[in-house]
Every structure is written in C-alpha cells, then in structure tokens.
Amino acid sequence: MNFNNNFFYFKLSYRESLMGVLDDKISKFCNKLYNYFSSNNQNISIENKQCSILSNQIKLLSEPILNNENHDIKKVKKYIELKEYRNDDFIISKNLPSKKSKSLKDFEILRLIGEGSFGKVFLTKLRESKNNKQYAMKIIEKENVIKWKQENNIFTERYILQNLNHPFISKLSFAFQDYEKLYLITDFMPGGDLMHKLISYGKLSERISKLYASELFLAIDFLHKNDIIFRDLKPDNILLDEFGHIKLTDFGLSKKLNCDDNINDLIKSKKNIKRHKITYSICGTPNYIAPEVYEGIGYSKEIDWWSFGIVIYEMLTGKFPFKKKNKDNTFYFNQKINFNLKFPLSNDAIDLIEKLLENDIQKRLIDPYKIMNHNFFKGINWDDVYNKRIEIDNNNSNISNKSVEEQLNENFDKKFIENKIEVEKISESKNKDNNYLEKNYSSFQNFSFACKESKEEIIA
Questions:
Q1: Is the torsion defined by CA of 90, 95, 98, 102 positive or negative?
Q2: What is the rounded distance in angstroms from the CA atom of residue 376 to the CA atom of residue 352?
Q3: If we measure between CA atoms, which residue out of 452, 386, 391, 396 comes closest to residue 167?
Q4: In whole angstroms, what is the distance from residue 263 CA to residue 299 CA?
Q5: Which CATH fold topology does 104-189+414-457 show?
Q6: In the annotation, is 232 catalytic?
Q7: How does DSSP classify residue 255?
Q8: Which of 197, 244, 199, 245 shows the shortest CA–CA distance to 219?
Q9: DSSP states of 16-62
Q10: H or E stretch at 124
Q11: Is 90 within 8 Å of 2 (Cβ atoms)?
C-alpha cells in the first residue's frame, strides 16, 4: 500500500480463480482508517479505473488486497474471493464527501460580483445557518473545463484552497457539483479586488503599497515553499477583506510542481539556468507574463516575482510599467521601465522594481530572503504583517460596519452587481432535477468537500 497526500492506493493483482492476500499490519492500519471515516459520518468512496468489479461485495478499506507474489504464505491472514480478474489500481480517497455535503439548493444567490475565463462569482449565503455569513460562490461550467482540458487545473485550485492554510490565501468552505457545473465556496471579501481599488483611487501611497506588497510577498513565498507557482498574479486576483488585508484568489492557472518536473538535462542550456523543477505551459494574463514563459526552455517560480514587480509598480503609479507592445507581439520585453512620472517614486522603490523586472533570470531578484530584506521593506516587522497587527487602510478599517449594499456599491464593479439576469439564471437552475452522484462522472470524482468549521455553522 502506498500513502500519498490525497489518496490511499491499493495495488490489486488478481487471477482467474483466486484470492487476494491480506497482510496483518496493513489490516490493523486500515481498520483504524475505517473507524475514523465511520466516526466522522463519511462514506467510503471507491474510484474504479478500467474495471467493473463489484465493490459492494468487497470491503476494500477494512480488508485491503495486496499483490501476493512477494508474500510468505504463512503470513497470510485472510483471503477474499474475487468475482472477476484483471490488473488495475483502486483508489480510496481521504477527502471523501460528507453525508452533509451541500448542493445549490442550500444557498441563496444574492448578487453577481465577478467573472473570469471559466466561471462567474456570486455573493451567496446558506439558507439555514447560525449566522448571516456571506460567501463567494465560484461557478464553473463543466463543458468549458472539458473543452479546454482544464480538469487538472480545477483540482489544483481546489487542492490549494482546501489544503493551504495561510492568512493571505483564500480558504475553501464548500465544494460540490451537479450535472452541468462545479461550485467552489470561499469567504466573501467585502473590500473587492485591488484592481477596482486602483481604478477608484488612481494610485496608492508608498506606505499602503508597501504593506500590501509585504502581505503579497508572504503569500507568494508560502506557495513557492509548497512547490506551487501562482502563474496569474495581478491586481484582479488580490482580494481585500473588511480591514483592508489581502487574500490571493483564483488558482485556476496555478501549477503544483512534481518530482518529475526537474531540469537536470537542461542545466547546460544557453541560459545555464540552475533550477530544480520547471514547467512549460504558456498561460497567464499577457501583461503580467514573464519573458521566459515564451522562450520554450521551461520556467519555474521566478515568474511570480516578475509579476510581483509589475503589481508593485501599478500600486505606486496606477499605470503599467512599459509603454507599448513590440511589433512581434511579445509585449514589453527588452523595453525600459517608465520612471518618467509626474510624481517620482522613491529610490528604494525604483531599485526594487528594476531588480524584479529584470529580463535576465540570473540577474533578476528572485531570492525571497533578499527581497524581504530590500531597503523598500525597511522598517517592516514581518511577524506583525503575518499576524495582521498593522492597520492597512483607514478608509477600509470600518467597512465591516457598513451594510452589504454599501460594500457592494463602493468596492465592486456596477456591471456585475447590477446584473440581475445572471442571478435569475442560477436561481432557476435550482429547480432542475440536478441530483448527481460523483461516481457517474469520472472526470470530477471526489470533488465535493465541506470544511469542519463550515459544518459547525450549519444548523443540523
């Protein structure tokens, strides 16, 4: 048996007339798992790949079957007769849906608050809960996911939202699906996104920009330490809570680097880039994509620091750092950063931006330790930043005292919040017969989720 972060794998080897072998130690371990799942009111979900064995007649979790070729027959404790034979893997997920997993009918859809490439985001709340807590519901069309082959990206996004606990990264409360759509439920951020704030204010002071950049740095560094590249860092994906603190969101383009993603064979490339894990996909928002993404030799975490530099420049100036596209449509590569501004930036800000927006990766500032110790962040107490002890923005500090209507009008685009047609469409779809079993749709099995804290808010 192989234990992985997300699944328990049982390698099955079966023959025409025969039996699987059960090892005593694994039996005891799996019985503990069985008791754990049972005590938490969770069903055992079995994903059966390329095999139609009758799982109802085999208690796989409490009586796992192992390859019997390398086992001493004297150690065999049990045999389980199999009705069919074939070589395959069964996967039993740790992240199993609860009996209380949600559906669209459990939520009241209030407003449309945002829209992305693959889905729309709605303000919503649970119909029956102990409080009046609001959530952001991201709704994704399965048809589009399959059409653009984004299944892995959807599960990467759910993995990050569900498993990574950080003060500046959005957290998943619920996930569920029906025949047509996938639903990801996170906390509602009443401050809107950073892009809307920049549009409203024009630009931010260096003090506020520095504090936002500090929180953003901690979030990016945390992702990188977990071998995740964000790949779509931009003001639109930086949300603000009721006190002005940030939350990174929209991980649909993020990449979890694997052990196979290494660059050992590419160390002698023309760039002589010494990195351990790389990927090749060209994706992201064009104005924020680092030059090396287009070069075809692979890239890694350094691309997020390029985007980080652009976001800092935009916060300080309200503008984009490069003047225009090149004729070959490679945007701003090899162009000089525009520092000819009406309100000049500090020397520390200019130095940091220039080092982050360096085309040559070997010269670019990508060392997290050196970034956080740059003079631009001088005076920052990183422990206070992490624990949100620093007041970010006086204008946002009392937003929690405002009504939802005031929050929406001040911090969200009117083209979304005034769109009642989309809200009506989702509300109407509740009346459809969308009862859905995850096992009927292999591409999205084990998608449903409800975090412990969210369960406690629900009135049983």
A1: negative
A2: 7
A3: 386
A4: 10
A5: Phosphorylase Kinase; domain 1 (3.30.200)
A6: yes
A7: E
A8: 245
A9: TT-EEEE-HHHHHHHHHHHHHHHHTTB---EEE-S----GGG--TTT
A10: strand 119-126
A11: no
Do 104-189+414-457 and 194-401 agree at the fold level?
no
Secondary structure class of 271 (helix, strand, coil)? coil
Do 135 and 125 contact (CB within 8 A), yes or no? yes
Which amino acid, one-letter code, is at 96? Answer: L
DSSP 8-state assignment for residue 104: G
> Which tokens go with 101?
């997993």
Report the distance separating Cα 244 and Cα 190, nearest Å.
9
Tokens 């916060």 belong to which residue? 315
Tell me the pLDDT of the chain (460 aa) as tens digits. Answer: 444 444 444 433 333 222 333 334 444 444 544 444 444 444 444 333 332 222 333 333 333 334 444 444 443 333 333 333 233 333 333 444 444 678 999 999 999 999 987 889 999 999 988 788 999 999 999 999 999 999 999 999 999 999 999 999 999 999 999 989 999 999 999 999 999 999 999 999 999 999 999 999 999 999 999 999 999 999 999 999 999 999 999 999 999 998 655 544 444 344 444 445 899 999 999 999 999 998 888 999 999 999 999 999 999 999 999 876 665 555 556 778 999 998 999 999 999 999 999 999 999 999 999 999 999 999 999 999 999 999 987 555 568 788 999 999 999 999 999 999 999 999 888 776 555 555 445 568 889 999 876 554 433 2
DSSP state of 344: P
Q: How many CA atoms lie within 13 A of 324 on its CB side?
A: 3
Give the CATH architecture of domain 194-401: Orthogonal Bundle (1.10)
Find, among 450, 425, 456, the residue nearest to 102 by Cα.
450
How many angstroms separate the CA atoms of 303 and 326, rounded?
Answer: 20
Using CA atoms, how far apart are residues 267 and 26, in angstroms rounded to an integer? 42
What are the structure tokens assigned to 435, written together? 């009862």
- Marked catalytic residue, from 232, 241, 250, 413: 232
Q: What is the residue extent of each domain of the chain?
A: 2-93, 104-189+414-457, 194-401
| Residue 99 CA, distance from chain mean position | 24
Amino acid at 434: N
